[in-house]
Amino acid sequence: MKIVNGNVFFKQKNKEVYPYLVENRTCNICIIGGGLSSLITAYFLSKKEKDVIIVEKNIIGYGQSLGACSIADIDLNAITKLKKREDIMKLYEVYKEARSDLKKMLDEIGVKYNEIDKYSYTNKIMQKGNMQKNINLKSQLFNVGGELIDKIEGVDSVLNIKWEDKTIVLNPGEMIQKLAKYLLEKQNVTIYENTEIVNVDPQYEIVKMVTNNNFFITANKVVYATGMDVLKTIDVNVMTYQKYTVVTEKIKENVGKEKVMCNFNADGGEYIQFLNSGNTVITGEDTKINMKMLDENYKESMDTSKYTKLIVQLNKLLDMSEYIDKGMCYSTIYAKTFDMLPIIDEIECMPNCFVICSFGHGTILNGIVGGKILRNAVNGLFTKEVRFFRIGREACIGK
Ligand SMILES: Cc1cc2nc3c(=O)[nH]c(=O)nc-3n(C[C@H](O)[C@H](O)[C@H](O)COP(=O)(O)OP(=O)(O)OC[C@H]3O[C@@H](n4cnc5c(N)ncnc54)[C@H](O)[C@@H]3O)c2cc1C
């Protein structure tokens, strides 16, 4: 995913500046990429390993992570798609543990978070049966209750579920910057910005890398946390979309009324987030990337119509007397794996190289899950849950 146009709401203004590489370096672990996946992985690795280097070709938090990711919620829809019930239960435990580890990490690095109400909503009256089925399924499998309610405060939808569990929300821009600073101050991590790894040569015991300015980094292990660029290195099937986001100006009546609402019919691809500040974020209108989008005029008019659709939809839903106009709009490219789970694995035919990538989805919790797996994997130990995230797992889990 990359930002195609528009300003980003969660961007952190007080950004630290990190140096670029001006010498050859050796290290124990080198992480390529400086987004959320990289920094969270570095957090776990650096607690056990000496000398971790992060190399980012742009600036820290510039890639997909620049988009918008403030929600750290367990994707129960993805988990329920697994075939075996025991796998569903196991994976749920993995993510529950990740959620509590995330809270510990946020406390340690000094990032505030809230745990807020979450809802599913629809305007399709015929969905009542399906919504009830969904509540029953989640409560049977995960013991996560929900109730069908007539109204969400301030919202004019037809059918709603209020879920019993809450979701964690935080400012991702703040998280990225504080995590990077923490890693530099408290752990043995070095960060280089504006330094691109242009060649990776994995050898029997070490990995040799070359940077764009012709310096060498030699590492015992390498972790690719390169976001969408990971597709240049590993062969996985993903579906690629354009995703649209609109953030309204502050709505006075909504200040302090934080909640997250997911469109029940959009398979998690569309959500509305009411922020504490009174700004409201609506994300959705996912459109498969196609050749026509190469035409800039076509793309521009499509973008405009998508933003308009989102704001019209939001106005229909908001129970407000006045029309709310768009504040910021941006569109991003992002990808989905077939099962919406991340890729966390060693890379075949590249000894000592590993990968962590969520593409456009749930990176905060996936980063925690991946960081913990990779902390062991770099020492040759693979915990059982890695089977859910392996490259080519279609075969492993019988899909
Ligand atoms: C609208 C929207 C809302 C979202 N909301 C949420 C949410 O609420 N919660 C959530 O958890 N997730 C959310 N996501 C998903 C999340 O934003 C992304 O999946 C995540 O930021 C990806 O992080 P990453 O570190 O894997 O990749 P990136 O942030 O893309 O980082 C990869 C980095 O690697 C660098 N790089 C690539 N190649 C090289 C190289 N050769 N040398 C050096 N550096 C290199 C790139 O420059 C880049 O900075 C959302 C996504 C979208 C589109």
Describe it.
By secondary structure, the protein is α+β, with helices and mostly antiparallel strands. The protein is built from eight helices and 19 strands. Strands 1, 4, 5, 6, 7, 8, 13, 14, 15, 16 and 17 form an eleven-stranded mixed beta sheet that branches. A hairpin with a 4-residue loop joins strand 11 and strand 12. Flavin-adenine dinucleotide (FAD) is lined by residues 1, 32-38, 55-58, 62-65, 67-72, 196-197, 225-227, 229, 243, 245, 283, 332, 334, 357-364. The site of flavin-adenine dinucleotide has 41 residues, from helix 1, strand 4, strand 13, strand 17 and helix 7.
Query: In DSSP terms, counting alpha (H) and pi (I) runs of 4 or more, how many helices?
Result: 8
Bound molecule kinds, no repeats: flavin-adenine dinucleotide
CATH architectural arrangement of the largest domain:
3-Layer(bba) Sandwich
Question: Which word captures the global form?
Answer: globular
Number of strands: 19
CATH topology category name of the largest domain = FAD/NAD(P)-binding domain
Termini gap? 26 Å
For the largest beta-sheet, the strand count, sense and barrel status come to: 11 strands, mixed
Strand content: 25-35%
Helix content: 25-40%
Rounded to an integer in angstroms, the radius of gyration calculated over CA atoms is 21 Å
Order of helices and strands: EEHEEHHEHEEEHEEEEEEEEHEEEHH
Count of domain modules:
2
Which regions have little confidence, pLDDT < 50, spanning 5+ residues? 395-399
Mean pLDDT: 91
Structural class of the helix and strand makeup? Answer: alpha+beta
Q: Output the CATH class name of the largest domain.
A: Alpha Beta
Question: Which homologous superfamily in CATH is the superfamily of the largest domain?
Answer: FAD/NAD(P)-binding domain
